[in-house]
Amino acid sequence: MTMSLWKKRTSKGSRVTGGTKARRKARPVGRKPLSREESVAQRAKSPSLRSRAERSEATGEASGVTSKGSRVTGGTKARRKARPVDREPLSREESVAQRAKSPSLRSRAERREATGEASGGTSKGSRVTGRGKEGSTGFAREGLRAVRRRGRGRTTARRKEGDTETSRAGSRRALRVFLAIFLVLSLGAMVWVYVFTGTLNVRNVVVTGNERLEADYLRAISGITPETHLLRMDTGAVRKALLAEPYVKEARVKRRFPATVVLEIREREPLLYFEQNGRYHLVDEEGVVLESRDAPVAGLLEGEGVELPLLYPGVKVETAVFSEMASLIEELPEALRREAWRVGWRTGEGFYLIVPATRIIFGSSSDIARKGDIAYMALQETLPRYGELEYVDVTYPDHPVIKPSS
């Protein structure tokens, strides 16, 4: 009876406070009923709401966010806080400042934009003061729209920057193509002017290194004319034409822009001459016949005793006897060479040299310098005593033989 009476009193006379049916607790009938604020605080201290944020949210939900007596300020439902009923309502400026300090608006620029949007009103003239669920949601939507607009603006700026960079790259590419075409055309025009016109025709031929041959003669045999183009001139052909002259030993052809050709010549020097068919043929150290004259040439030795081909300018004497004779002449002492006037070769004696009043026998062409010195000293000592000598034999330089004339 007692148990049933307690259950009946509990079911009918007690007041149950709490959030859900699972958390309801029976309060004795004799206790004073809880006020609305105490009921809210009791639900906020429920163990199921662990964190402070959840308690605040529960406090906001229970303290009359949706009721008629209290006012809620803030941005979203998760950040709402209950304000006591007896507190003065926030002014418009305070509400705007509170929303501008919302954690969802991180940067200063976002706060300014949110402040401007909140203080300026909506598109239809209504003001957002943060009252109730609709004001908070509208403010959040406006902030989100501002962030989106700013994102779209940044994207548009990046696109414009990309378009500008692409345009600049295209302009640079077009400029390079234009410069390349201009360069090719310019080079083509220059080549055409210099190759196929008379701009680079030879107007001056300079000759250097010539002593015996005249410059006009060398210009004439070179084949260079005023119509000769400097670039198309065959330097090999010009050199070959110059070397056809027996006196020219070496030749170099150089171009000098804009219209000059330089001919560098190295001439041959006559060493001796041979008499053949009533003419006197000048020969250099290599055996090349340089020219033919009608009279002997003073200051040159006459050669004899050498087997010769038919001599004329340009022919070369190629025999072993002539090669040794040329070596002998080059190695003779200068004093003895000035006095000599003939050189020859004879079987049994070898090479000999004819000087005034005697004949010097050298034998072979070896050790010519020493044999020449001994022969010259013998002439200086014996000629004043004997006046004339039949020969001086220096075939063996350590035992020279001097034979006076009988």
Tell me what the structure shows.
With 406 residues, this protein is of the alpha/beta class. Among the domains are: 69 residues, membrane protein fhac (Ubiquitin-like (UB roll)); 135 residues, Rossmann fold. It has eleven helices and 16 strands. The strands form four sheets. The chain has a nine-stranded mixed beta sheet, covered by helices on one side. The chain has a three-stranded mixed beta sheet with strand order 5-7-6, with helices on one face. A two-stranded antiparallel sheet has the order 1-2. Helix 2 runs antiparallel to helix 3, helix 4 runs antiparallel to helix 5 and helix 5 packs across helix 6. The longest helix has 65 residues.
Oligomer: single chain
The fourth-level CATH homologous superfamily of the domain at 270-404 is Cell division protein FtsQ/DivIB
Shape: rod-shaped
Mean pLDDT equals 77
**Judging by the overall fold, what is the CATH architecture of the domain at 270-404?**
3-Layer(aba) Sandwich
The rounded Rg comes to 64 Å
User: What level of helicity do the residues show?
Assistant: 40-55%
Which band does the percent of strand residues land in? Answer: 15-25%
Tell me, what is the CATH class of the domain at 270-404? Answer: Alpha Beta
Helices and strands: which structural class? Answer: alpha/beta
Biggest sheet: strand arrangement: 10-9-8-11-12-13-14-15-16
Order of helices and strands: HEEHHEEHHHEHHEEEEEEHHEEEHEE
CATH topology-level name of the domain at 270-404: Rossmann fold
Strand count, sense and barrel status of the largest sheet are:
9 strands, mixed
